[in-house]
Write a structure and sequence with these properties.
The chain is of the alpha/beta class. It has twelve helices and 15 strands. The strands form four sheets. Strands 3-2-1-7-15 form a five-stranded parallel beta sheet. Strands 8-14-9-10-11 form a five-stranded parallel beta sheet. The protein starts with 12 loop residues before the first strand and ends in a 36-residue tail after the last helix.
Length: about 475
């Protein structure tokens, strides 16, 4: 493409990622008469979602489709699935996201991996004439060729799926973690797949993490244990066990999300899983028989396991944005105005205050991080959040600030409070306060709880 000399409304708005937020952004742009171009690294729409096709969402269909996208799909004869049912990732991709991408047609380019974003002819240091310059994006294609595209604005909806957190409690891979990579998984395994099931059936598996993904892994491993004797999980928690450890349960305004926590609790209470608390992984070593030993920062060594599933959250890939002037929170790597609203270190009941283009803006005008990527390392993202984000952002790009500023977002509460972790005694002794009931009491967990684990009262849910 020829290099444009100045910003032009004839240039497209480039959307990075053909997932739920990215495709919704494209639909909103079209609704406003703005031409989008979606660059997707995978071979199909929702490539990341398809990698967890076996996992059921805890939000029903009524909360995972976007209004502008529905309007775009309507002329094709598309019928929205039963609003009260819960799709799997595969259902979401096949019944909604891929049809939406198909409607967008050539506006979605597959096998297009963005490698860099900048201002045309201006690196991040240069101020002169910066805002009048279009954005330029470099990307690679399936055959390895490098191409570029120019844009009037950029919406980065690339998510965080490709950059999962490691086992190491300090945010770095535990010593030895890379060496045993073949025995470590960073996603919820599909235990209905015979090949995957054989990897865990009859085996002892460590599950590191405290969120919904860990709950899912524990529950599915417990199901395998019903048919495969010897299948057992060791649930490794960096924090103590408190009333909020297993989520909001029946108090959660998303019943399916609450049920996940109850299923994890049942796995522990029924003896299908042991819980190890206050354990911060420092190293993974091989035992004499080839099994794996998790070593904690405090010197504790867990009994050997056959497999490890690390579900410690995700983090954004910011490498291709190095020439863009972003303003990110130093802890969450989220836009600095949004970070205080979603920070899991702060007391929260799982709700997020209304936010839109202003909270998502950066010193570099015209670029927005939306969807899961906008949350950085925070774990509390819901699809409806992303849809409201892109509605506001696309209105701002189109120049309709009145609509862009009219942000209304009400998210279901988890029924539990967030807070500081095990290393914060003051938070652990807090009475909860704020929007929640008094701090949850200690949960006495069931069979197999190691007597050496430090079980403390803790009001942290670690996200929702």
């Amino acid at each position: 493409m020829r290099r444009p000399s100045a910003m032009s409304e004839q240039l497209p708005v480039v959307v990075i990622g053909a997932g739920p937020a990215g495709l919704a952004a494209a639909a909103h742009l079209l609704e406003r008469g703005v031409e989008p171009l979606v660059l997707e690294t995978g071979p199909t729409a929702a490539a990341a979602v398809r990698e967890w096709a076996h996992v059921r969402l805890f939000s029903p269909w009524s909360e995972v489709t976007d209004p502008a996208a529905e309007k775009l799909l309507a002329p094709t004869g598309w019928t929205k699935p039963d609003a009260a049912t819960y799709p799997s990732g595969g259902d979401w991709a096949e019944q909604y996201l891929q049809p939406l991408a198909d409607v967008l047609g050539d506006r979605v380019r597959y096998h297009a991996t963005v490698t860099g974003v900048s201002r045309t002819g201006r690196d991040r240091v240069v101020d002169a004439d910066r805002e009048s310059r279009p954005f330029v994006l470099h990307f690679t294609t399936a055959d390895g060729r490098e191409e570029r595209i120019f844009a009037r604005a950029v919406i980065d909806a690339s998510g965080t799926w490709t950059t999962p957190g490691p086992a190491g409690a300090d945010g770095l891979p535990a010593l030895g973690e890379r060496a045993v990579a073949g025995r470590v998984a960073y996603r919820v395994p599909d235990l209905k797949d015979p090949a995957v099931r054989s990897r865990y059936a009859g085996k002892r598996t460590a599950v590191i993490g405290s969120g919904a993904s860990a709950f899912t892994a524990l529950a599915t491993l417990a199901d395998v244990a019903k048919d495969e004797p010897g299948t057992h999980a060791v649930w490794v928690l960096r924090r103590g066990i408190g009333g909020s450890t297993f989520g909001g349960g029946e108090a959660d305004q998303l019943p399916a999300r609450g049920a996940l926590g109850l299923a994890a609790k049942a796995a522990v209470d029924n003896g299908n899983a042991d819980a190890v608390t206050g354990f911060r992984t420092e190293a993974i070593e091989r035992a004499a028989d080839g099994r794996l030993i998790l070593v904690g920062e405090d010197g504790r060594r867990l009994d050997p396991v056959d497999e490890v599933i690390v579900l410690t959250g995700f983090r954004p890939d910011l490498s291709f944005l190095s020439e863009i002037r972003l303003r990110l929170d130093e802890r969450l790597q989220a836009p600095i105005e949004l970070a205080p609203l979603i920070d899991p270190n702060q007391h929260s009941c799982g709700t997020v205050y209304p936010h839109g283009h202003r909270e998502l803006s950066h010193p570099e005008q015209g670029i927005y991080l939306v969807g899961m990527k906008s949350y950085g390392r925070a774990p509390t993202f819901l699809a409806m959040t992303g849809y409201e984000q892109v509605r506001s952002v696309t209105a701002a790009i189109a120049g309709d600030l009145e609509s862009a500023d009219r942000v209304e977002l009400t998210l279901p509460e988890t029924g539990v409070c967030g807070g500081a972790g095990l290393d914060d005694p003051a938070a652990a002794q807090s009475d909860g306060g704020g929007c929640c009931a008094p701090a949850p009491q200690l949960v006495q967990i069931g069979i197999g709880a190691p007597t050496t684990a430090g079980v403390t009262e803790d009001s942290s849910s670690g996200g929702c």
